[in-house]
Specification:
This protein has 12 helices and 18 strands. It has helices at 11-19, 33-42, 64-75, 97-106, 119-136, 155-162, 205-219, 276-285, 289-297, 325-331, 344-352, 380-402, and strands at 2-3, 29-30, 47-51, 54-55, 62-63, 85-90, 109-112, 148-152, 173-174, 180-188, 191-199, 223-232, 242-250, 254-258, 263-267, 309-316, 339-341, 360-369. The strands form 4 sheets. It has a 5-stranded parallel sheet, with helices on both faces. It has a 5-stranded mixed β-barrel with strand order 12-17-16-13-18, surrounded by 5 helices. A two-stranded antiparallel ribbon has the order 4-5. Helix 3 runs parallel beside helix 4 and helix 7 (205-219) packs parallel to helix 11. The model has no long low-confidence stretch (mean pLDDT 90).
Length: 407
Amino acid sequence: MIVDDRPKRYDRLIAAFSKIGINRNEIDLVSCTVSAREKMEQHNYDLLILDILIPLWPESDESIQHSADLLFEIREGEVSNPPRHILGITADREVGASVLRDFEAYTWTVLEFSADNDDWFNRATNCARYLLDQLKIANGPSEKPSDIAIICALAKPEMEEVLKLPWNWSASRPIDDMVFVHDGWFESGGRTLKVSVTSAPRMGMVSTALRTAAIVEKLKPQLVAMTGICAGVRGKVKLGDVLFADPSWDFQSGKRARDKENTQFSIRPHQLPASAQVRSHIEQLRGDKNALGMIATEFEGTPSGVPQIHVGPVASGSAVLADGEVIKEIRAQHQELIGVEMEIYGLFAAAQAASRPHPQYFALKGVCDFADPDKEDGHQHFAAYSSAQVLRALLERYGHRLVVEKA
């Protein structure tokens, strides 16, 4: 069912649904929330497309409150036949800003309608195609494996920079009821390699580990990578440099015990190394000054500098650091520490714990600050960009050697 008082803009979408096997008589299109409630009393829907700005009655004025009320009723079980999945849609995110967070939390995803951009149209079609596959195959869709999977901590700025790489990206599609990916491909050594990218719903090791586990299970990649931003250790790295994490660990893992006078924290770090094969190839790339210089030259803005690639220990933790003192404590766990961030150990742990054959895994993160009170703003964009560009150089140059060609 489509709930929108501007039905004309769905002509192409309905035609696309017909091409994948959803007939027009299987689609209800209503213009207000009262009609939507009536339809849901009468029918079971696999998919509801709900405009954020909608009238209560056909003759009423539009309001974001009406769509928010309907979404609340569905979420709280006040609708007798709730739809299996809901797609929100809006032509103006600013107009619906007050309810947008609820829509993003309680719908499958939110589409941004544009008459000049087909992304919303392709994403909606991919969602419908996924549901058809679910209905046809009792055990869920059979996914085509990706050679490489990239997991980013957030959609912006990390995944945004990956999607700027010239890797023939498609509109996002669901691979299960929670996870959406963009698929792409690129050439390396005369071979075509398939790549998928997604972002975790929030920062942190737990969210990253859950997203990585789902991606590895569904897409069976041979390589799992992470790009993004991190804090560097002042004096060892510069703003804009890219860190290859090897090893990674949770610097907050351990036991806090109290004696007669003091409370002490006894560390128990479990360090996980990056893939040795990937490390050997990043070592080759780090000496290519021309390639690294081009990364700075081609940045659309003011670069933080010509990035250098550093290979070394990067610790993960669940809290954002800004006082400068904690890094000194973390260095006691590994004197060669070069960076601190919030996700890498979660990715390493999930990939390492996957069913055999394990994918190779690694992470590249750009330095945007030094986790101290003297944080310099404005470097996150370049840090995310530089990490994505180093990933591009690594995979386009050596990807055919890192991904085994299947017979």
